[in-house]
Amino acid sequence: MVGLAELWLPILVSGVAVFIVSAIIWMALGYHKPDIKFLDNEEDFDNAIRLLNIKPGLYMFPGCHGKDLKSEAFQTRWKAGPWGIITIYPKAPSFAFNLLRCFLTYLAISAIAGYLAGIGLAPGTEYMRVFRVVGTAALLGHCFGGLANDYFLGKPARFIITGLVDGVVFALVTAGIFAAMWPSAPTP
Fold this sequence. Notes:
This protein is mainly alpha-helical. Helix content is about 60%, strand content about 5%. It contains 7 helices and 2 strands. The mean pLDDT is about 95.
């Protein structure tokens, strides 16, 4: 067994490495560009949203609560569309704050992957065994944590697939760092 305190350095290094890889993927590689679409008439859309004075939150439309699902009025709206989800922020989003939250998420995934590996692996465990255990745990965190929400929130298949590709890369980076930095067996 390896205590979490012994793994602070691989946790930190893998969190930083995944953050850097994520930045490279999003800013330099460009394969996420087609994932997000922009409206042709964005100014008209902005003006319409402003006029509605919608409070901050996540909205689904057409909206309906429980018993009203079967009402004729809702069924008519449901069949006619449009259908969608919109998030209204309370203020302009902070890029720096969102980057910080991403970094903290990567650290948390690394810490949990390290914790799970530490429960089952001893100091001095061979590279590939550490790689497999940490990689599997990191894959679960990076790929599948929000997948159910992606489905229900209507994210396009391409967006989901590219996110999964990112998650596999992040898991491989995390696994490689942990395997390379795994504590040695104590010398007798």
